[in-house]
Amino acid sequence: MIVVEDLHKHFGGFHAVDGASLRIETGSITGLIGPNGAGKTTLFNVIAGRLPPTHGRVMMDGEDITGLPPHELFHKGLLRTFQIAHEFSSMTVRENLMMVPASQYGETLWNAWFRRKQIAAEERALAKKADEVLEFLTISHIADEKAGNISGGQKKLLELGRTMMVDAKIVFLDEVGAGVNRTLLNTIGDAIVRLNKERGYTFCVIEHDMDFIGRLCDPVIVMAEGRVLAEGSADHIMENEAVIEAYLGTGLKNKAKAEAGA
To answer: Which helix (H) or strand (E) holds 135?
Structure first.
């Protein structure tokens, strides 16, 4: 589905992404891991159109989407969430979901004056769909809560719910576990697996929680210093010497070896 070819993103002399190439296969839940500063979020931002690449190409289903803005990628079914949830805090959880679909009748002044029945019918349909999404995510009980008042984990579920309000093909999830308790993280993981299996969503997930990655993701791609370092199953990745060194550093790796041999 997504093919990244020799992608670079430079900020002055700093090469945040430095020749990364990778594939995200249709129907997969692909994990993207690496130490802080490896270039993972920058890679997401380039793929999702938030940053232009310095060099390289991004393909989606055989189409060159390099540099397309987020709203065009949204219509192609490519969506992303953020490490810090972006909710409309003064609106209810249900209303946050209802805001997602584009080109709604009520967005133009003409329709607001002369197509009130169509607007009302559309709002009822959107509210029904939002309630179905909330039930799927097991958070129906917060439908009428102000989004600014719900927990961090519930906000992450709300962001996932936004992707369900449109015809998403691939969703890039940036650290869904950040600041989330274990119970809600399990709920988020269950929802991702169900969306993958039941609705055919493709996911790419940045996450530091290796238990979470190991449960959900195959394959797992490792980045370090802006490049792809390794790829494989979670078990294979965690036995990879280069990956261990990238995460722990040479000194800690050698210390671990010494302790194992003692």
So the answer is: helix 116-136
| Helix%, strand%, coil% for the chain, nearest 5 | 45, 25, 30
* Ramachandran area for residue 109 (φ above 0: left; ψ -120 to 50: alpha; else beta): alpha
One-letter amino acid at 234 equals: A
Amino acid at 159: E
How is residue 181 written in tokens? Answer: 């308790």
Q: Where are the beta strands (DSSP E) in the chain?
A: 2-11, 14-24, 29-33, 55-60, 63-64, 78-80, 170-174, 202-206, 220-224, 227-232
How many other C-beta atoms are found inside a 10 Å radius of the C-beta of residue 169? Answer: 18
Q: What are the tens digits of pLDDT across the range 77-89? A: 999 987 656 788 9
Buried b / exposed e over 149-164, threshold 16 CB at 10 Å, is ebeebbbbbbbbbbbb
The pLDDT tens digits for 133-163 are: 999 999 999 999 999 999 988 998 999 998 8
Q: For residues 22 and 231, is the Cβ–Cβ distance under 8 A?
A: yes
| Residue carrying the six token digits 């671990």 | 256
Query: What pLDDT is stored for residue 245 in this prediction?
Result: 82
